Amino acid sequence: HRFTESTEGEFLSQLHETGWLYHIQRLLICSNKIADSLDLGDSCLVHCTDGWDRTPQCTATAMLLLDPFYRTIVGFSVLVEKEFCSFGHKFAERCGHQVQGETSYTSDAGVSGSDTEAQQSNTKLQPSPIFLQWMDVVFQLVRQFPRHFEFTTRLLEYLSEEVYACLHGTFLCNGEKERMFEGVRLGTASIWTDVVRAAAKERAGHSSLYFVNENYDSATAWEYISKQKGSGIQRISPNCSSKRLVFWESFYLRHDGDNYSIDFRDGPQQMTKKVSFNPEWERYFDRFVGDSCAARRRELPDMRRRLQNLCVGRPAVAVASASLGKGNSRICSHCRKNLGFFSSRGQCVRCGTTLCNNCAVCSDSESKMCLDCYKLCEWNTQ
């Protein structure tokens, strides 16, 4: 929906016509009902049409309403990884990411295995701001319960920008299978590394408060996280009335010509001070982060082995691509770019496919390879 230059009244009318806040309200109502049922000991089955859009939105929000662990910075990263990344939210398609290359594994019936696969088969993509919409839902919760969340809305704004910026590998591809196939875990940095390090510096007073909420009640939260109270459940019940939902001004108008909102928001938060939380709370999360890093390091050899096994079956696909490339040398077999008569081109020394300059990778011997064969050679030497 495109907003036009208008008076304040017209802007509010246009905002209402988008139905954005209505959808935020419906997500909060649904999540609240799920949390109520779980709090009473009932089981819930949550499933939308496809399973990877509204489902993680509602389940993740319900967990925020029940478990104080997920209201911490570390816990929130676990929640996003669990309910969106590992569950299979289609970041590449929903966020409009473009990934160069071919995907050759067989996907499940009825489910597109890759955004590149969908592009090459001319299937209509379905971009939709599902993750951003959930960030807005969390924003409403942080605003209503400022002492229950360790993080500020700045973290939500940062994640909302990064999901489209693609500076980290966390939000790439359409699922865990594709991330494994493309070597994302091995070849890119995780956004949570930067977030956790930044938060640690802020708490220690080495940098200005940005992600960390100095008003967070860690002592009360620890009583529930450690299960001294409530069996780990600290229920918060948001007001879902449309009168209580607000437009996320600090994010949606961050590039607006009217700088009032930015000045108003930034003023009191640009300070450097040491923030002391409950000692047991701090020891628990320091140990949690350390154990998680150690576990990831132990996973690396197995991930390399799995990725190499995935590549074993690729030569057959490469041969098929080679026959296509040799039969029509004016088409790059990797990106399908039409090569003109005077266009520079090369040929992979391993599989023989025709390549444009953008898709050709030079090995140590300066021989040209396609990206797939180059990766295979690289992993075999590790």
UniProtKB/TrEMBL annotation:
Q: What residues does substrate bind to?
A: C48, T49, D50, G51, W52, D53, R54
Which superkingdom heads the taxonomic lineage of this protein's source? Eukaryota
Q: Please give an example of a GO cellular component term from this record.
A: cytoplasm
Against PROSITE patterns, the record matches this protein to: PPASE_MYOTUBULARIN (PS51339)
- Which residue range or ranges hold the Myotubularin phosphatase domain? 1-252
SUPFAM superfamilies found in the cross-reference section = (Phosphotyrosine protein) phosphatases II, FYVE/PHD zinc finger
Task: Name the catalytic site residues.
Answer: C48
User: Which PANTHER family does the UniProt entry name for this protein?
Assistant: MYOTUBULARIN-RELATED, PHOSPHATIDYLINOSITOL-3,5-BISPHOSPHATE 3-PHOSPHATASE
Q: What protein is this chain from? A: Zinc-binding phosphatase, putative
